[in-house]
Specification:
The protein has 15 helices and two strands. It has 397 residues and is mainly α.
Length: 397
């Protein structure tokens, strides 16, 4: 099954959660529904109900899902006609602006979004990062952008230098476009590590490792060594922006307690998933289910699972998880198949996109950054780059 068929199944799965069913059928498919109805509603149970315990949130999730799928297919069609470099340069400019805004805002007004607006959070001392309230959501956007822009820079360098003497290509390499690509990459990487997002730092390291390990097959020994050196230089340029003491604290002293908190969240989320194994609570209904299932003291309310895979299983059950897994596998296989056939320039675009997607997949074991619409839209665009059929492939499918 291809990506299109799997995506259609995902949309259908969410739509099925909104179909009114007799209560006896709903209880058969969702054994925990009766308990939630008793806890969340007064009066007698309705004779007809949807599989979703929060239909309004599921309708919104369905609309968002359809929008993301439309963006993916429109972007894929666009890239198959050209325009890949223009879009990536635009993304480099946006990433550069985002990094500058984050650094300026953190220096001048660290508790206000854009230095102007107070975020609505559960803490009395919020610490937003540019337009993002949460550091991990910012990291998700940067994890998608950094490998792609870096891949563009690497591919462009290889095309310019191949078969030419260094003395004749320096001027062609150090031009405004390359300054944009490298400057944006360095500042975005610096912004990511300075955010102190642990999942973001791990994801960034994973994306660079994927670029190095996969790209070395195209570069040979000398080229792979040069790539490794370039990636090391990138990290060295980003490291001065890191508060080493704060990073050590987040990875050291703060980690055990944070793991304990997440284990509590995962435990309560798993209880929901176990009670709604087939059809889930309903897309977008996690927070409503936690009104009943959260067992730890509610000084903090858990409105998401801090694990994208567990959240999907909780909200969608096997009804949603299986087609979504099929869509992910189909996307990965398509990207790898095209990657093996690409010419140099397109290869590095696609590899950068794939590295970003895999980095976010790693991050999603700890966070749920794709809940943010901006991140989800960028994810769709990057996925389109990863699987588009390039008009410059060495041979057709």
């Amino acid at each position: 099954m291809g990506e299109r068929g799997a995506q259609r199944l995902v949309v259908v799965a969410v739509a099925v959660q909104l179909v009114p069913l007799p209560a006896i059928v709903r209880d058969l498919l969702s054994p925990g529904a009766a308990r939630l109805d008793a806890a969340l509603h007064f009066g007698p149970r309705s004779a007809v109900a949807t599989l979703s315990i929060d239909p309004s949130s599921t309708v919104w999730s369905l609309a968002v899902g359809v929008t993301i799928a439309a963006v993916f297919w429109l972007a894929r069609a666009h890239f198959e006609q050209g325009g890949l470099r223009q879009v990536c340069r635009g993304l480099a400019w946006i990433g550069l602006a985002l990094a500058i805004v984050v650094f300026v805002q953190r220096f001048t007004s660290p508790h206000l979004i854009y230095g102007l607006f107070a975020p609505e959070t559960h803490t009395s001392n919020p610490s937003p990062f540019g337009p993002y309230v949460n550091r991990n959501d910012l990291a998700t956007w940067l994890l998608l952008a950094v490998p792609l822009v870096l891949g563009y820079a690497i591919g462009r360098t290889i095309v310019i230098t191949r078969g030419r003497r260094w003395s004749g290509v320096i001027d062609r390499i150090v031009d405004p476009r390359m300054v944009l690509l490298l400057g944006s990459t360095v500042l975005m990487a610096a912004c990511l590590v300075s955010s102190l997002s642990r999942s973001g730092v791990v994801g960034l390291a994973a994306s660079l490792a994927i670029l190095a390990a996969t790209g070395r097959r195209r570069l040979g020994t000398t080229g792979s060594h040069a790539l490794a050196i370039a990636l090391m230089v990138l990290l060295m340029l980003a490291l001065p922006f890191v508060n080493a003491g704060a990073m050590a604290f987040r990875f050291g002293d703060a980690l055990p307690g944070d793991i304990g908190e997440r284990v509590n969240i995962w435990s309560d989320a798993w209880s929901m998933a176990r009670d709604f194994p087939l059809a889930g609570l309903g897309a977008g209904a996690f927070a409503r289910g936690m009104l009943v299932y959260q067992h730890v003291p509610r000084t903090l309310f858990f409105n998401h699972a801090h694990n994208e895979y567990l959240q999907v299983l909780t909200e969608g059950g096997l009804l949603l998880a299986l087609p979504l897994a099929l869509a992910c596998v189909a996307t990965l296989l398509t990207a790898v198949r095209h990657l093996r056939r690409d010419v140099v320039a397109v290869f590095w675009f696609r590899l950068g996109a794939l590295a970003g997607l895999l980095a976010v997949a790693i991050q999603n074991a700890w966070d749920t950054g794709l809940r943010m619409p901006a991140n989800a839209i960028l994810f769709a665009i990057i996925a389109a780059i990863a699987v588009h059929r390039s008009p410059h492939s060495t041979r057709g499918d």
